[in-house]
From TrEMBL:
Pathway: Protein modification; protein glycosylation. The chain crosses the membrane at residues 12-31. It is an enzyme of class 2 (transferase). This is Fucosyltransferase. Residues 237-422 form the Fucosyltransferase C-terminal domain. It is found in: Golgi apparatus, Golgi stack membrane. Keywords: Glycoprotein, Glycosyltransferase, Golgi apparatus, Membrane, Signal-anchor, Transferase, Transmembrane, Transmembrane helix. Its EC number is 2.4.1.-. Pfam families: Glyco_tran_10_N (PF17039), Glyco_transf_10 (PF00852).
Length: 433
C-alpha cells in the first residue's frame, strides 16, 4: 500500500512537470506571436529607433540613373526592369541560332546543364525563347551564330580560332571578378582587344548579364512570406546561432580573412567557420558547389565575403547562403552603392556601414536574442522573391538561355571591344579595401 502511494505521488509530480513544460511553451509561443505583431504595428518613427533609418525597409526603386539604364543592352534593361512583357525580337531566324561553346563546353556542362547533379536539364527550360542549338563541336565554327570563349580557362590568345565570318558574335564569358579573369597567368586583357563583340558576366552592364542571382518584385497573391508570424514559425524560429561563413579559398586581396580573424576574436563561438580555412569545420558540409550545406540554416547572419572588392560582384554567397537560407548577408565585395542598386533596401548589411570589425561584432550581438529587431531584416520578403541563377547546389543556370535571348533581343548593330581594360580592367573596377 505504501509502495502504491509512492508511485501515485511520483505520477502526480511527473504530470505537473509535463504540464509546466507544456504551458511554458504556449506562453513562449504567445510572447513571440505578440513580438511579431508588435513589429508590424509600430509606426515608422518607432521602427527607426529599433533599426537605423538607413537599414529600414522601403520598396526598392531601381537606382540606376537614366544614362546608366540607357547604356544597358536591351536584355539587361529587360532583366533589370522586371517587366512581364517580353522585349521586341530584333531578328527571328527560320533556322535555329547555333551557339558554339569553344573548347570548354563539356567541362562547363557540369554546372550549366547538369547543375552539379547526374541529370541533364534543357538549357532552354523556362527560357523566353528556345530557337537555339548548343554545340561543343569546333567543326561548327563557320556556321555558328555566336561563339563563347570562357576567358578563365583560356590559356592564351593563340587558343582562339581564326575568324571567318564578320557577322558572327564572339562573346567573352567570365564569372570571376576582374582580379581573377585568367586562370593561366602571364596574360593581359589588352591581348584580346578588338576580338569580341559581346561581354557576358555577372555585371548588369554586360551585353549578356548572367548575375549569380536576382531579387525581383512579386505579387501578394504569390507571396507566402508576407506574414511575419508565418515567417517566424517556419523559417526564423530554428535560427539559434548568430553568424557563419563557408569558404574553400583562403585568400583574398581585400584582406577578408584578416577581418574574419578579428571578428572571431570578438565573437568567439558566436562565429562559426566552415571549410578548410582558419581551422574551419571540414566535415559538416560535404561539398562546395555540389551539395548544399544544411548546417548554415541555423544562422541569423552570413558573412558574404567575396575574394575581391569589384563592381557588381555579388555571388552565391549573397543569394544562396544568405537570402535562400533566410539569413541576412553581410557583404564585403561589391561597393555599397552597387548593393543599393541591385538588392532590396534593409535586406543586407555592408562592412562599409561599420567603422571596424569591433563595431560590426557588437552590432550583431544586439540581434542574437532580440526577435523584434532581427525580424526587421526580413520585411522585404513581403515584396520580393529570390532567383538563384548560378547552377550551384542544384539551382538553375540561365547562362545559355541568356545567350539565346541576347541573339533574339539585343541590337544587331556592329560592336567590338577595342579596349577591354576600359570595360573590365581591375584597376578601374576593383579596390583593395
Amino acid at each position: 500500500m505504501l509502495i502504491l502511494r509512492h508511485y501515485r505521488r511520483i505520477s502526480i509530480y511527473l504530470c505537473i512537470i509535463v504540464l509546466i513544460i507544456y504551458v511554458s511553451k504556449i506562453i513562449k509561443h504567445y510572447i513571440n506571436e505578440r513580438s511579431v505583431r508588435r513589429v508590424l504595428s509600430l509606426d515608422d518613427t518607432i521602427q527607426n529607433l529599433i533599426v537605423p533609418k538607413e537599414l529600414t525597409i522601403t520598396n526598392r526603386k531601381t537606382k540606376f540613373v537614366d544614362q546608366e539604364f540607357t547604356n544597358l543592352s536591351r536584355l539587361g534593361q529587360w532583366l533589370l526592369s522586371f517587366e512581364k512583357s517580353l522585349p521586341l525580337i530584333i531578328q527571328n531566324k527560320t533556322e535555329p541560332y547555333i551557339i558554339l561553346i569553344w573548347k570548354h563546353g563539356p567541362f562547363l556542362e557540369r554546372r550549366h546543364i547538369r547543375r552539379f547533379t547526374n541529370i541533364k536539364f534543357s538549357p532552354w527550360e523556362n527560357c523566353s525563347v528556345d530557337n537555339c542549338l548548343l554545340s561543343y563541336n569546333s567543326e561548327d565554327l563557320n556556321k555558328a551564330d555566336a561563339v563563347v570563349f570562357h576567358l578563365h580557362f583560356t590559356k592564351s590568345v593563340q587558343d582562339l580560332p581564326i575568324r571567318i565570318r564578320s557577322n558572327q558574335r564572339w562573346i567573352f564569358l567570365t564569372d570571376e571578378s576582374p582580379m581573377h579573369t585568367f586562370y593561366y597567368r602571364n596574360q593581359k586583357l589588352s591581348d584580346y582587344n578588338g576580338l569580341f563583340n559581346w561581354s557576358m558576366s555577372y555585371r548588369m552592364d554586360s551585353d549578356i548579364p548572367v548575375p549569380y542571382g536576382r531579387t525581383v518584385p512579386i505579387s501578394s497573391t504569390r507571396n507566402s512570406y508576407n506574414n511575419l508570424t508565418h515567417l517566424y514559425n517556419y523559417f526564423i524560429r530554428s535560427k539559434t546561432k548568430l553568424v557563419a561563413i563557408m569558404a574553400s579559398n583562403c585568400s583574398g586581396k581585400n584582406k577578408r580573412w584578416k577581418y574574419i580573424r578579428s571578428l572571431k576574436s570578438i565573437l568567439g563561438n558566436d562565429l562559426d567557420i566552415y571549410g578548410r580555412c582558419k581551422g574551419g569545420n571540414r566535415t559538416a558540409c560535404p561539398g562546395h558547389f555540389d551539395t548544399d550545406c544544411s548546417a548554415l540554416n541555423a544562422y541569423k547572419f552570413y558573412l558574404a565575403f567575396e575574394n575581391s572588392n569589384c563592381k557588381g560582384y555579388l555571388t552565391e554567397k549573397v543569394f544562396w547562403n544568405g537570402y535562400n537560407k533566410f539569413a541576412v548577408p553581410i557583404i564585403m565585395g561589391a561597393p555599397k552603392s552597387d548593393c543599393e542598386q541591385l538588392l532590396p533596401s534593409g535586406s543586407y548589411l555592408h562592412v562599409n556601414d561599420f567603422a571596424s570589425s569591433y563595431e560590426l561584432a557588437h552590432y550583431l550581438q544586439n540581434f542574437h536574442h532580440n526577435i523584434n529587431n532581427y525580424l526587421q531584416f526580413h520585411v522585404w520578403r513581403e515584396n520580393f522573391e529570390i532567383l538563384n541563377e548560378h547552377g550551384y547546389f542544384g539551382s538553375v543556370s540561365r547562362h545559355y538561355c541568356r545567350i539565346c535571348e541576347a541573339l533574339h533581343y539585343n541590337s544587331r548593330a556592329n560592336k567590338i571591344y577595342k579596349d577591354l581594360d576600359d570595360f573590365w580592367g581591375k584597376e578601374k573596377f576593383c579596390s583593395y579595401d
